[in-house]
Amino acid sequence: MIPTRTPAGARRRPRRTLAPYAFLAPFLIPFVLFTLAPVGYAFWQSLHRTERTGGTFGRTHSVFAGSDQYAAVVKEPFFADSVLRVVGFALVQIPVMLLLALVLALLLDSAVARAKRFFRLVYFVPYGIPGVVAALMWAFLYDPRLSPVVDLLHSAGTHVDLLGPGAILWSIGNVVTWTYTGYNMLILYAALQAVPADIGEAARVDGASGWTVALRIKIPIIRPALVLTGVFSIIGTFQLFTEPQVFRSIATSVTSTYTPNLAAYSLASGDNYSEAAALSVLLAVVTFALSFAFLRFTSRGQA
Amino acid sequence: MSILTRTDGSHAPSAAAGRRPRAGASTVIAMVFMVLIAGYMLLPVYWLLVSSTKSQGDLVTTPGLLPARWHLGENLAALFDHQDGVYSRWLLNSLLYAGAGSAVATVLAAAAGYALATYAFRGREAVFSVILGGVLVPATALALPLFLLFAEFDATNTFWSVFLPSVVSPFGVYLSRIFAAASVPDEVVEAARMDGASEFRIFRTIAMRLMSPALVTVFLFQFVVIWNNFLLPLVMLQDERLYPVTLGLFTWQSQTSRLPELQTLTIVGALVSVVPIVLTFLLLQRYWRAGLAAGAVKS
């Protein structure tokens, strides 16, 4: 996009006005203060260590520590555990959720589905429910003392402890899937709506089945939207916080360092600001790098 | 039931009409699948509705998915009565954080998006790239750095520590730019200039009006983001009277192992906290669907 070469741009060229800056400033000032500055400050803090001179009650001051805080965080035993946990979570939960969202979007877009408006609305309901409330509801539904779900499983002869160490991660995965499937479905559905109807029609006249049209024509066309949902999901997974935090009070298997974000929060509430800063910077960088790599990887091979 | 009636919005290939007999089986399979998923999506909501009407005793002793003795009125009274009515305080806080926060965020985003769409100026694409980078930084990643920064100025545990960061919506700027480019014609802006209108007046009286459907979307999305925000108030606030409703419910839930009677209050409180947001979504669904569509197609 080279807007300055358009006739409209050329016409406005001579009008050197401060107006655009005046319109941008009210947004940019808080944007700098509350988005860029905190990240910058966290980065600065992650490179420094607090030291006291003159004993326990002496004055504190910051000392440049280079990458010491990063080394310290990476060496913590919780670090590898929590990172591997979210990676495993991402490898299972994201494909399951996106596949479900894609199938639902294709069904809603196809001729076979009925009552589309109703289903679209129902699938989107969970997204409107605050994450804390969603986690609260599922926490009650998993709680063996209250849960109708556990009762049903029992009467079916299965005895699974949904809050036990083996199952809790997937119980959390279920909450995340429940919350975001409809949201992702809506993005994919919106992209499908933009696919010209006559493309599919022509293929069907040529004898292609509904599934062939979906796999060969629709999915390749909505690929950018699929990539978008993938990136959002990766970002969300590495920031996983609300669900495990809510589950901590009913499941002892969720520790205070269960996910990287939870660990960063625990470090900060333990007044270990430097390590908390190092961990949040690390987390932000890894999230960025992964999303970017995913974008590059999936857009490769596109004409 | 309405499931069997055809609805609008389908751009099904008309050629498929000739194939109707074959479509029978796949329609049944598809419908069974879609109904099952709908059941899954509605199960927790249904459970919440049923449980809200039960007394603490019935909650534990009666089957979870079946209604028991109607106790909703008493539960609601207890909810708003507990700890001197702290729940209504939380609701008001949430309305203030989310309502005022997203209103301010929408105006700021509208102005910025309008400027990026209508003026050609030095550094425009650079500014836009930085803002787009901001879209990719999730709120949870910012909460701790924000806390560290506010702690430096002893400004944590204040209303502003939660309110101010929420007026920034890079996604809103992104949407506003797209909508301003699509809905504010250059000719109209030029004509207004010829008539001697100031740049600010053009924005306020013409552009804002033309962009208004899009601005409803921006407002709604930011409202949901702030209403659902949990980590930022969790790290910033110690004073219970400043809590938004999500954080309040969380503190109640984490005490239920010691105080089981808080279970009923948490459940009813969760139900009440969801009502405003579900209502807003239902009333404004025309707008947010259009917004999502634009976001998905243009990126």
Order of helices and strands of chain A: HHEEHHHHHHHHHHHH
Number of strands of chain A: 2
Main beta sheet of chain A: strand number and arrangement? 2 strands, antiparallel
Order of adjacent strands in the largest pleated sheet of chain A = 1-2
Mean pLDDT across every amino acid position of chain B: 85
The pLDDT mean of chain A sits at 84
Q: Low-confidence parts of chain A lasting 5 or more residues at pLDDT below 50?
A: 1-14
DSSP E strands of chain B, number? 0
Order of helices and strands of chain B: HHHHHHHHHHHHHH
Radius of gyration of chain B: 24 Å
Largest sheet of chain B: none
Approximate strand percentage of chain A = under 5%
Q: Radius of gyration of chain A from the CA trace?
A: 25 Å
Structural class of chain B comes to: mainly alpha
Structural class of chain A: mainly alpha
Helicity of chain A, in percent?
Answer: over 70%
Question: What this model shows, in words?
Answer:
The complex is a heterodimer of chains A (303) and B (299). Chain A is built from 14 helices and two strands; from the N terminus they run ααββαααααααααααα. Chain A has 303 residues and is mainly alpha-helical. The longest helix of chain A has 33 residues, at 77-109. Chain A is globular, with a radius of gyration of 25 Å. Chain B has 299 residues and is mostly helical. Chains A and B meet through α1, α2, α4, α5 and α6 of A and α1, α3, α4, α5 and α9 of B.
